[in-house]
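Thread: quick sanity check before group meeting

JM: Hey all, I'm pulling together slides for Thursday and realized we never actually wrote out the predicted structure for the chain we discussed last week. Dropping the sequence here so it's in one place. If anyone has concerns about the input, flag it before I start.
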Amino acid sequence: MKLKPQEIEIQNIDHLGIVAGIIDSIGIVEIINELIGVEKDEKVNAGQVVKAMIINGLGFVSKPLYMFPEYFETIACEHLIGTGVKPEYLNDDKLGRVMDKLFIKGLDTIFFIIAVKAAQKFGVSLSTSHLDSSSIHVHGQYNTSLPEVIFENQKIGNNQELEEIAVKSPKEITITYGYSRDHRPDLKQFIIEMICSGDGDIPIFLKLASGNQADSSCFGQIAVEYHKQLEVNSLMVADSALYTESNLKMMSDLQWLCRVPLSIKAAKSLISTIPESEFIDSYIPGYKLVSKTEIMQE
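JM (edit): ok, ran it. Output follows.
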């Protein structure tokens, strides 16, 4: 059937068709719906809301939540998000309810599940993993306390009726002063702890921490938690903050690789006694390397 010009509607998708396609290939909508649940008769589900937020975030625009519907009126909403999803369904009330559910479920858990699924989908090897942290500075005042419990509506029994359930609050972090990686010690901050795949540097594990947390106090626990969830014996690579007595005991069953800090006398002594002639050129210009084996006494 030939359409008349006045019957043709043209909608814009820009680069967002690629974004939506990758979201669909990973199965992010289905993962979110499985974790959060789907409510009866809802016009747009939690997975579709998350998909919409990703598309908006990668759409090179800055729109507050209350202007979400206006943004999706400018693009092919149903084509990108799902059949029957209209811009007015993506209002700030719906987005807020979904974000509350994501927070209660645990954003680090959700991130990990999606990242591992993406790695499996696109053949990313997790045989080696790289652990590090970074600080993010912020401006203004922040409330760093949470109530002991959060009330959430959950479906109970076979009748699928909603009942208000008390859920224990996630552990809060403290936005405070600490060692600033971005050279702003005058501002408060929080810490992002991240593990990336050695293959392609794909973020796999993400956790937020208080702004004054030291890497040496938590890297071992993060490595153990990561391997427990991953269920793959991945070689953990990190900087010298990993090398502490408590971390090494914690990681006794793991494979790990890090530089021994020169604050340890044996390491400093060994470095000072290696002749320069034993160093060989690295493939990285300006760097040389040497390998030594030393048995450390407990």
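AS: nice. Residues 1-105 form one domain. The mean pLDDT is 89.
JM: adding both to the slides.
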